[in-house]
Amino acid sequence: MSPVHSTTATDFPIQRHHGLRTPETLFPECPDDLSPKQVAGNPAPVAGQRGSISDRKAPDRPSASTERKQDLSNSPVRNSATNPSKRAQARLVGIARLAAASPPAETKRKSAERPEYFVLPVKSILNRCDSPRVPFEWTVNPYRGCEFACKYCYARYTHEYMELDGGEFEKKIYVKKDAGPLLAWDVSHKYSYASEATGGTLPEHIAIGTATDPYQPAELEYGVTRACLEELAKREGLSVSIITKSDQIVRDIDVLQRIAARSDLAIQITITTLRTRLARMLEPRAPRPDLRLAAVKQLTQAGLAVGISASPLIPGITDREGDLEAVAAAGKEAGAQWFFSGVLFLMPSSAKQFFPFLRAKFPRLVQQYEKWFSKNGYAPEDYRQKAAKRVARIRQVYGLHSRPFVDKKHRTPCTQMSLGWDAAAVAQELGRTRADERGYA
What we know:
This protein has helices at 36-40, 64-67, 85-88, 94-100, 157-160, 179-189, 218-222, 224-233, 253-262, 276-282, 289-301, 323-334, 348-361, 366-373, 381-398, 423-439, and strands spanning 116-120, 127-128, 138-140, 143-144, 172-176, 205-208, 239-244, 264-270, 305-309, 339-340.
């Protein structure tokens, strides 16, 4: 049985220890001089993080109140001789502690350029998103980190929660253990078929791939995304979207069609430029733009709803006259139904990686970028407004929708399990889940 998948989400074998009190901050500042692979050789305790299907209260990232009650004197620590002594022995907590104790994942890849893979024993795969700025209530990210190594990637900050530098985002990939059974449990207990945002008329939306590409190379070996999709295919009346830069998604057309037949499914393929050399510079390990367009066509021919994301629009690099229009035209020809693009957003962890790239490849833009992004992560409002008007014109020219357009077939709220503890109901649900797993083996 793969260490990444199991039908029953067996417990992760990590010892429990007791010791000193937890540091005051949930994620204390600790430099990363010690590789998680080195720590995994002698697994440190991870209290309460066992990945058991019978214990689901703690999310992927434990709460501060929960962690501060635990004793962590024997927990992993990252030291640095150059740091003050009071920080040198700071203990890792929360997801940082869990990541440091994650064992290496087996891989068949032999290339020296390959990232390090680790098995992350999370307790939840469906994560709540309460931000009013995004059109979804839940996210699913099968991995932490992404090998595509996009220079502008905003999600690099997620590695900082694990006390890793954002530059490690493409070098240390964490494979979430037992994602299929965990997602089955999460949907049964957390998900609502009557979203508050729609006045109860439509189901809550699940976005897959918001902080890591679900079809990065790791998926070929570990199949975590496929395991999640298989679980969603067993349900009816969901609202789901997937966003990826990879043509590998066509591998899963069969299960995507099963999901689309019973739920609302929208697929976004990200293409920031059609210029192959530029794409290789910006997104070093992502598939070529022409391969992504071919995926759009194949998914469309399979009867699936597909659109193009041209985000981010990178000032001075991907915004020259005709470039964005070319992406929309090619997407339309391939069968895309919608098109959108948003201007580059540079969080500090992203800027730390993006500016060295800018100085090396586009030095003439450095001064302008420093002026624009020195105080916050957004480009000036007037530039963003002009970009929005340009995108609106492009959509009008090519007859494309502004956002995922899916015929809402499933408007009747479905029943779901009570969130209250009911041992009989839980046992019945687990029995159905395991029977379904046998049926889809």
